[in-house]
Automatic annotation (TrEMBL):
Family matches, as InterPro entries: ATP-dep_Glu-Cys_Ligase-2 (IPR051680), DUF403 (IPR007296)
Protein name: DUF403 domain-containing protein
Species this protein is from: Dyella nitratireducens
Domain DUF403: 1-309
PANTHER family: BLR5612 PROTEIN (PTHR34595), SLL1039 PROTEIN (PTHR34595:SF7)
Length: 311
């Protein structure tokens, strides 16, 4: 397989999974806001930093306290934000355009329909009334593409690059969504409300990852910081947990051309997650750990790029 084709398949799957997770995160944040009592509010600004767009947001909006509409528009449809959801879907479409012959035609139709929907309805992103429908349409479109890739693509080397991109992207997005909770999205009215709002915040994190029902099924306990971290970092059965994604990568690598650099970096990421102590992270906060995990995942991506795509 040409390295250019492998690179595009890898990035196409990453863009699709990134768009889905961004839509889920913003949608759940809006739903939490509706459930908050008077006097409490959502801090939307941490979402910008979590998704790696802080500098660009400051350039466009300055140092003033941003309104919800400013942040949501910036993250969803701002043309000058390279990581806006609108641009992520556009990148997915353009990436697939160059390798259309390698994937079923239905994949192109689905991603093109999603792109055209976003381009035709950008005003819905800024409207509280229409935003849930807008984001739900994006999640459904991304899941449709993912289903087509799973059901209709031959299990050859190209498919392994699709799976690899999905696994790395999901592990990264799971860590970033955990980081939003560490940043403190819900601003409590008083210290007396802090514990209740903390539980609500971590329920929101689980819902952002479509994990709340599976959390209750596996653990059968109320949501706590420690148990949520345990589930999202180390659960071996839930497909969006970090350990599940890394275990999937562990199964993919033997089916690809061997690259020692990739295997070495992968072992570092796996070791970090294995050694994680959710009880301690719940006390000190998961922020520093998440930073280290994102560095390991970035190093893994760099090793994949250097080993497979620069040849």
């Amino acid at each position: 397989m040409l390295s250019r084709v492998a690179d595009n398949l890898y990035w196409f799957s990453r863009y699709v999974r990134r768009a889905e997770n961004m839509a889920r995160l913003i949608d759940v944040n809006g739903q939490i806001q509706l459930d908050l009592p008077r006097g409490a509010h959502i801090a939307w600004r941490p979402l910008v930093n979590t998704l790696g767009a802080g500098a660009q947001f400051e350039r466009l909006h300055g140092g003033e306290t941003p309104h919800e509409a400013d942040v949501v528009r910036f993250l969803l449809v701002e043309p000058d934000n390279p990581v806006a959801l609108r641009n992520v879907v556009s990148h997915a479409r353009e990436t697939l355009r160059t390798v259309r012959e390698t994937l079923p035609q239905d994949c192109w139709v689905a991603i093109n329909d999603l792109h055209l929907y976003i381009e035709s309805n950008p005003e819905r992103a800024g409207s509280r009334r229409h935003r849930p429908e807008f984001l739900g349409r994006i999640v459904d479109g991304c899941m449709h593409v993912s289903a087509l890739l799973t059901a209709n693509v031959s299990r050859d080397t190209g498919y392994q690059f699709l799976r690899l991109g999905t696994a790395i992207e999901q592990a990264d997005m799971t860590s970033r969504i955990i980081d939003t909770a560490a940043a403190g999205l819900i601003q409590a009215r008083s210290d007396d409300d802090a514990e209740a709002f903390q539980a609500m915040q971590w329920m929101g994190v689980l819902r952002s990852l479509a994990a709340y029902q599976m959390y209750r099924r596996h653990l059968r306990q109320k949501v706590s910081v420690e148990l949520a971290l345990e589930f999202l970092l180390k659960n071996r059965e839930f497909p969006r947990s970090v350990l599940f994604c890394l275990s999937r990568i562990q199964g993919i690598l033997p089916q690809m051309p061997p690259r020692r650099q990739v295997e070495q970096v992968f072992r570092g990421a796996m070791g970090l997650v294995f050694d994680a102590n959710p009880t301690r992270l719940a006390v000190v906060g998961p922020g520093s750990f998440v930073d280290r995990l994102q560095q390991e995942l970035a190093a893994l991506h760099g090793a994949v790029h250097e080993s497979y795509f620069q040849a």
